[in-house]
Amino acid sequence: MSDKYRQIFLAANDAIFIEALDGRILDANPAACELLGYTYDELTKMKVADIVPPEFIDNMPIEQVSLKKRKPGDRWFCCENLRKDGTRVAVDVKVRPFEMNGELCVVAIVRDISELKQAEANIFRQNMYLTALHDTTLTLMNHLDIRALLESMVGRAGELVGTRNGFVALVDEVSGNFILKVTAGFYSRHVGMVVIPGEGVMGQVVTSGEPCIVNQYALWPYRKQGRDYDMLNAVIGMPLKNGDNLVGVIGLAYDEPKEFGAAEVAVLSRFADLASIALANATLYTALQQELAERRQIEKKLRYMSYYDGLTGLYNRTFFKQEMRRLEGAGQKPVAIILCDVDGLKLINDTLGHEMGDLLLDAVATVLKASVRSSDVVARIGGDEFAILLPQADGKQVGSICSRIRSAVDMYNAEHLELPLSMSIGYAVAEAGMANAAPMNELFREADDNMYREKLHRSRTTRSAIVKALLKALEARDFITEGHGDRMQEWMAELAAALKLSERRTGDLKLLAQFHDIGKVGIPDRILFKPGQLTPEEHIEVQRHADIGYRIAQSISDLIPIADFILKHHERWDGSGYPIGLRGSEIPLECRMLAIVDAYDAMTSDRPYRKALNPAVAAAELKQQAGNQFDPDLTAIFCEIVERRYRGDCA
């Protein structure tokens, strides 16, 4: 080789090898030594097979190994060369045969294409990532169910970077904590775990709202503690955001000797952005679905409320009237209407409370539904009014249904002796073939008139039954008054005789003795039977029984004559009583008499906290309170009656 060409050979940037046909390296330039890390002496003692991996030797172009055939022209191929340190370098090789000193040789010009290969690999990987992201985007955007979306997010993210270990944590709207909702691989055992801010990769993302990448997890000071976490090699956490708000964390981990490089971080960052959008869409969709479901529920409830009675579940007046118009428009005959009115409901509400009244109304609904046909329309059209619309029902059928209703009421009362159910019933029928049949409104009025006539006929019997039920309720709630009413009636009769009162007033006094405390049915048991001392507020509540009793008596014709006495039976002679604060003779005579008799009977009856007092002691106590609590003249007369009856005891 001439000196001029030798200088070019030595100065060339590309590695140049001169090789014999048997593979011996005859010469190499400095670039070749630098490329492979060998000295010149080392290289010239080696063969091509020493610097080319076997897989490339076997697959080299046939032209190179057929140089013995002396084919002219350059030959080009790519392969890898082995460096002295054992690493490989991608090279582009151009070979050409030539004669040197009369011997056929090969000149190989070798160029390092590592960066080019890396660039190609990066491009290939980016294309792979972009394709995967495109597929992932389509997949994520098609998921509107949040659970399915989260599972897809973990699976797809793992596929992108080659791991099966992943999780998604979402913020809990109530507690504000981040909780692992979906997990895979290593994290499967931690589903439902609450993320502790600052602890582990998840906690760091929750605290900062930024990505967290740890490639030597075992050495990281903020790692989660526990032997099972020591198996992790690299962990990455990406924030999931809705606008500026952190709503979740998606995380992946390698449990093998791999790391999250720049490429993986970039693709996962983009993936997290897409996942955040998909999650926001799914969350919005779920919220809209929930809102629509709530609206449908509200609409259903409103429709129900517009046609049904909320207490009994029967149709209401609106629906009943609508059905009346529909049947009238259809010209259906025969058709009938039955009206039922619950007797004494107001009295029951005032005395036993609306809860008991509601139970009675519910019982009426049960009785009516059990007594009619499936085609009949049963409705509650007022507070205590029920109506039944009976299409294709003649007078005989309606009469039979009314009988069934009354029988059902009797059966109910046999099982519920504590409070009898009483209903007044009236009906009207428009028979088939009737000329000029009355409109439905007139049919309704006719049924209402018939019901009202029955109510008037039954009123006294009904009131008597309700009064007896109230008395039983009063006795059941106040065990200390057992026999109290009877004794009071007896003493009141004797005092009335001493005062020469009329038979009518004596009868009212007996009634007052029995019903003066009827208002107690309206006082809560927790106050009425409180074992300890009452608070000022509870005293006021107890005092209401006089007013409650007055209102009850006003609603029962038999008790109207004593209603005013019930209101005032706790007034005191000195004006310190309630509810009005009457004084002296302003207090009705009947109330003054009752106050003395009631106090005496209380003192001479056993109490849980004391034994009954001796009649003489009780009479002495009455005299002591004469002029303060009691009418002094009436007190003296009553004490004489007591002394005559118990003269031996009083001596």
UniProtKB/TrEMBL annotation:
PROSITE patterns: GGDEF, HD_GYP, PAS. Transmembrane segments: none annotated. Coiled coil: none annotated. Residues 1-55 form the PAS domain. Residues 459-651 form the HD-GYP domain. SMART domains: GAF, GGDEF, HDc, PAC, PAS. SUPFAM superfamilies: GAF domain-like, HD-domain/PDEase-like, Nucleotide cyclase, PYP-like sensor domain (PAS domain). This is PAS domain S-box-containing protein/diguanylate cyclase (GGDEF) domain-containing protein. It comes from Sporomusa malonica.
